[in-house]
Specification:
alpha/beta, Rossmann fold, 5 domains, nine-stranded mixed beta sheet, 18 strands, about 60% helix, globular
């Protein structure tokens, strides 16, 4: 074909575009295909064990290709139509083997798995839907641990005309799939996606509609546009979402029409070469950036310096914008405040109306009421109105403004002036001031709304007059601050002058590549095959009656792969005993260490060892669970705990750590403590991720960023990080949590939070407290984010926890056992810790025992190759265990071995860690002995380096105290907002509880009393939770400043509603409770009176609780301050004693020698006992 792309030949296009040496092979292969006999080729791709070969067998109508849960297809298997069946095999040495007529099908299966000896196999079959000009190819799994598999697949795709991509249900959102699909899409190849094993979908965990639309949304956001999506399963043909018959019918139809698509496919193939050129240029551009960063590193700059430089450049460019933003943000905040603030909601308006009736004379006093009586009544109504207005004034004005001003960016002196002005604001309390607004004459029922509006406006105007001068002050500071900021920016950039020069030196090369990219991009905007996908869509539905392989072909259905390689293995793991050293006598060791607390040498290290011994005795045993995304880690933990606890669905949303342990202390059952990331953590994370995307964001600027969700990205990595930024943006915009705080929520609330990406990405760690057999036995289970999922940060989190854990369990999925992602992660953790177990989850999917044994052999061989010979491989089924814990196919084999084999070893490991600490301590003490042997003059000169920093400790402590003292305002704000929040909850609970208790049946009075008791109990729980959460917040704030203050044990404050509402229980005895009580007027009045009394009691108790909290907080902050001073004095005293000892003319090291002998005796005794044993 002379012309293929917009009328140009491939040679002409080569001249028009900047193709280089990297594209030579691709262009040569394309030219070769175009010059040869026209053919249309479709490749089936996917990760290993996704079911590619099985689907081809379904298409063909016969089990010709080998399939199993371990990598089987190891080379390219091409199938084309022809009059007779035959096989052509191209060996690695170039030799070709032919088989005609009688086909050795077992031999075909052997060749398919021989990736080293066979490069390509061509299978010709008399299939009605395939002609000799249309081929379909089965490719090796892209993520197999065999490196040749990926190479064959990549080579095949260059001249492939379309892709059928197969993924199993549990890995549809994995990084491997996204990377490959995005690569194919960027090369302009049409894609059909098959989601296999759809029978794994659990409607109770996630509705199919949400799953499917979520998948389409993800594909859209990653720029992946499939021609069609099918959901299939060969295990459950009647499954409601099984489209396997439709897939077979439509793909056969497409292939039958394939010859008519050759021209479009050839044009698109050339376009894909142009797309590939674009990808290469993007890589070249990135390489410029990498080389630039390497040059910067050689000059002594680090990534943090580069980030800082970019941030400073951006700051310099946006100084005017920043100052304008400060002013506009303050003005906007105040304008919204002036416009929206209302001191007269329903209850306050009602109280104002009562007062108005007295003032205007419409109140009925009776015939003999005098002027004094009227004044007294008016004052009573006025006092009620003012009390309600003051409550609103504090919450809607004072605390609202204080909180808003604390968030806005502005100079400290302006903020201080604003805060001082707000603190001085007060509500007019003179009755005459309010009377002046009341007009004379008759008034309609609507007059009260006019009156309250005028009063509200007058109060707001008074506030405006107080605050506007400060806004003008901020405006007047503009020129001065602009100059200061520009000067400061230049000073800040000075250390990066050399970095700036390096940046400029690489810019020309980058601009050249960018120019080439623009040329290529312009070429890609025109397409000679723009309607190619539409034609494929029509081809899919063109025929409905095409059959498969002719029945005359005899196929051997035996599975040679397993018959040859299945080894006899037990389904359970071995339980050989492990020899460990005798355990330390902890009480004796602790006593001996404590006896030397007066020794200054290595004092901190000694205290650390004592603390380790305490933790050894009291802390739970930590068991970390890691694994590839969607391997079933959370489901396994649920099976282990025998309850649906961890949220699990095929979504990569677990972006944080979760620990599960037994309740203790203030941690109640079914409660979750969620630690939100700090502002510093988020700022650092956002800056780092932005840097990876060549963007510059901070927490505040990310909130305001526009168009992030549709930002164009050049690489998959950038796309993934932008996706993460997008989730972060959604989370931080809502400002639903206080940064760095710890929130206490119910298990149900947490389960909903953990699967919401916009919320989950803000979670630092979640601590779940539940009673189960495992947690009550002293185990803490740690669920880590999926390794190698969409975000590499998940892998880093998992590795960190593995390093600290007592036991390590790795979970892989049966149909994807020991994938490339598993292998890469195992290589990373090799120097950290070996897995105690590798669990093959969903092993009940095995077709038979032979297949399961083959998978276990494959995994064991892989572990052995990587250097993990002692890791036990156990097949499990979390799903079966959840349905029936006693099911032998569940997790019993694992739990038995863990109890009998690993549990005794765990304590021994901790003792080994303790031994390492002791030996390190002995080495340090011995080094001090050598150091003290130096001449006195040398010791005096070197000893100053060992002084503890006093001034820094003092400055940091004083700053922390000032910050803690400022929390008094937040405690007051809690009192204001908690009253409204709690009362609304009480009112909602009343409606639901009383309605549920008082029905049509007899005994309604007793039911009403029972309902009130239940309601008061629920209200008390809400009250206690609110106080606990405020104490938790204060603890988090203080702990972040290294001065932890825990008020939870000191605040014993109940709501005491029973005494407040006792009269209502007596009233019920005389009350006529009709069946319609909860809806009629009498019931409504009863409710309103109870709620009004409750509201007053809540206000009183809350005021008392807040005052107690403030007093306790002030007292503890004062104590912390005193302890800080004492600590400073102690450090100064220790410094003097330390210097005296280090500089002593004749140092006495007797105590050091005694400690050495004491510790060595423990180690020697342990070694001797072990040797004897």
């Amino acid at each position: 074909m002379s012309t293929i792309d917009g009328g140009y030949s491939i040679e002409e296009i080569k001249q028009m575009l900047p193709f280089g040496k990297p594209e030579e092979e691709r262009l040569a292969r394309i030219s070769s295909k175009l010059a040869g006999e026209p053919k249309y080729s479709v490749a089936i791709c996917g990760h290993f064990s996704a079911g590619k070969s099985t689907l081809i067998n379904q298409l063909l109508g016969a089990a010709l290709l080998p399939s199993s849960p371990i990598p089987t297809t190891a080379n390219i298997m091409t199938i084309l139509g022809g009059p007779t069946a035959q096989i052509k095999a191209v060996q690695s040495d170039g030799q070709v083997s032919h088989f005609k007529n009688e086909i050795p099908w077992d031999k075909l299966q052997e060749m398919a798995v021989d990736g080293a000896g066979i490069e390509e196999v061509a299978l010709t079959l008399p299939v009605p839907f395939l002609s000799n000009k249309v081929t379909i190819a089965d490719t090796p799994g892209m993520d197999s641990t065999d490196p040749t598999h990926g190479k064959y697949t990549a080579d095949q795709l260059i001249t492939t005309d379309a892709i059928i991509y197969v993924t199993d249900y549990n890995h549809v959102r994995s990084q491997t799939n996204i990377e490959f699909l995005r690569q194919i899409q960027r090369e302009n190849k049409p894609i059909v996606i098959v989601i296999n094993q759809i029978d794994k979908h659990n409607e109770s965990e996630l509705s199919f509609s949400i799953f499917y639309h979520g998948l389409k949304d993800m594909l859209q956001r990653y720029g992946i546009h499939p021609v069609a999506i099918y959901t299939t399963t060969s295990r459950d043909e009647s499954h409601k979402h099984n489209q396997l018959p439709l897939f077979v019918q439509q793909i056969r139809s497409w292939l039958y029409e394939g010859q008519s698509l050759i021209d479009d496919a050839n044009a698109r193939m050339v376009e894909s070469a142009v797309s590939s050129l674009r990808e290469r240029l993007l890589v070249d551009r990135d390489q410029v950036t990498i080389r630039m960063r390497e040059a910067m590193k050689n000059e002594g700059y680090h990534q943090e310096d580069h980030q800082r430089y970019f941030a400073l450049v951006k700051v310099g460019q946006e100084i005017e914008q920043q100052l304008d933003q400060e002013i506009s943000a303050l003005v906007h905040t105040l304008q919204q405040f002036y416009k929206q603030t209302n001191l007269f909601p329903h209850d306050t308006t009602s109280a104002a109306n009562d007062w108005l009736q007295v003032v205007d004379g419409s109140y009925k006093f009776g015939l003999f009421a005098g002027k004094k009586k009227k004044l007294i009544v008016e004052q009573q109504y006025f006092d009620k109105m003012i009390r309600l207005m003051n409550e609103r004034y504090e919450s809607e004005i004072r605390f609202y403004l204080l909180q808003q001003f604390s968030k806005l960016e502005m100079p400290k002196r302006v903020r201080d002036d604003l805060i001082e002005q707000v603190e001085q604001l007060h509500l007019p309390e003179s009755i005459e001031w309010y009377r002046a607004f009341v007009t004379t004459g008759e008034k309609s029922n609507q007059y009260i709304y006019q009156l309250t509006k005028e009063i509200n406006q007058a109060i707001i105007q008074d506030i405006k007059r107080s605050l506007e001068p400060i806004v003008e002050q901020l405006r007047s500071l503009y020129p001065e601050r602009k100059g200061q900021l520009e000067q400061q920016n230049q000073q800040d950039l000075q250390p990066f002058q050399r970095l700036h020069e390096l940046q400029q030196s690489f810019m020309a090369e980058e601009q050249t590549i960018q120019s080439q990219l623009n040329t290529v991009q312009q070429r890609l905007q025109t397409s000679a095959a723009a309607h190619y996908e539409e034609k494929i869509e029509r081809a899919l539905t063109a025929h409905t009656d095409l059959s498969g392989v002719d029945e005359s072909i005899e196929v051997n259905d035996s599975n040679a792969v397993f018959q040859e390689d299945a080894r006899e293995q037990t389904a359970d793991v071995s339980s050989e005993s492990v020899q460990v050293k005798p355990l330390f006598a902890l009480d004796s060791l602790r006593g001996d260490l404590a006896a030397f607390e007066d020794v200054l040498f290595e004092k901190n290290e000694r205290n650390n060892i004592l603390a380790f011994i305490d933790r050894l005795e009291n802390r739970p045993t930590s068991v970390v669970v890691a694994g590839a995304f969607s391997a079933g880690k959370s489901t396994f933990i649920n099976a282990l705990l025998q309850r649906e606890l961890m949220p699990s669905s095929p979504h990569p949303t677990t972006a944080s750590l979760t620990t599960v342990s037994a309740p203790s202390g203030s941690n109640r059952p079914e409660q979750v403590r969620v630690r939100i990331k700090t502002r510093a953590d988020l700022d650092s994370e956002i800056a780092h991720v932005s840097y990876l995307c060549n963007l510059t964001y901070t927490l505040e600027s990310l909130k305001r960023a526009e168009g992030l969700s549709i930002k164009k990205t050049d690489t998959l990595e950038e796309k993934q990080w932008v996706e993460y930024l997008r989730a972060l943006q959604m989370g931080v915009k809502k400002e639903q949590y206080e940064w760095g705080s710890t929130i206490v929520i119910s298990l149900t609330e947490w389960q909903e939070m953990a699967v919401d990406e916009a919320k989950a990405c803000l979670i630092d760690v979640s601590h779940v407290y539940v009673h189960t057999a495992w947690t009550d036995a002293g185990y803490e289970l740690i669920d880590t984010p999926g390794v190698q999922s969409v975000h590499e940060r998940h892998t880093a989190l998992a590795m960190s926890e593995i390093e600290k854990a007592d036991a390590f369990i790795y979970v892989t999925y049966y149909h994807h056992a020991f994938s490339n992602a598993d292998e890469q992660f195992m290589k990373k953790i090799k120097t950290i810790q070996s897995p105690d177990y590798l669990l093959i989850n969903a092993s009940d999917l095995a077709a038979d025992v032979g297949e399961k044994q083959a998978v276990m052999t494959h995994v064991r061989d892989q572990l052995q190759t990587l250097g993990f010979p002692h890791t036990d491989v156990v097949p499990i089924s979390s799903k079966r265990a959840l349905e029936d814990y006693t099911d032998e196919e569940g997790i019993l084999s694992f739990t038995r071995h863990f109890e009998n084999g690993l549990k005794p070893v765990l304590r021994a490991r901790l003792d080994e860690e303790l031994e390492a600490l002791l030996r390190a301590h002995i080495v340090k003490l011995s080094e001090w002995q050598e150091w003290m042997d130096q001449p006195e003059a040398d010791r005096k000169q070197k000893s100053q380096a060992f002084r503890q920093p006093v001034q820094q400790k003092k400055d940091e402590g004083e700053q922390a105290i000032r910050q803690l003292e400022s929390e008094d305002v937040e405690i007051r704000a809690f009192g204001v907002y908690a009253h409204r929040r709690l009362f609304l909850r009480f009112a909602d609970h009343y409606k639901s509880i009383i309605s549920a208790n008082v029905g049509q049946q007899e005994g309604r009075k007793e039911q009403l009393q029972k309902g009130l008791n239940e309601w008061m109990e629920v209200a008390e729980n809400d009250w206690q939770t609110a106080l606990e959460q405020e104490c938790e917040r204060l603890y988090t704030v203080s702990n972040q400043r290294q001065l932890p203050i825990d008020l939870r044990e000191h605040l014993d404050f109940s709501l005491q509603l029973r005494g407040t509402l006792e009269s209502f229980f007596n009233e019920i005895k005389t009350l006529k409770v009709k069946p319609s009580f909860v809806h009629d007027q009498e019931g409504e009045q009863f409710k309103q009176r109870i709620l009004e009394r409750t509201k007053e009691a809540l206000r009183t108790r809350l005021d008392e609780a807040v005052e107690q909290l403030r007093d306790l907080w002030s007292e503890r902050v004062h104590l912390a301050n005193e302890e800080l001073k004492q600590d400073i004095e102690r450090v100064m005293s220790e410094n003097e004693a330390w210097m005296e000892q280090l500089q002593h003319p004749q140092p006495d090291l007797t105590r050091v020698q005694e400690e050495l002998q004491s510790l060595q005796s423990h180690l020697v005794a342990r070694d001797q006992e072990y040797a004897h044993k």
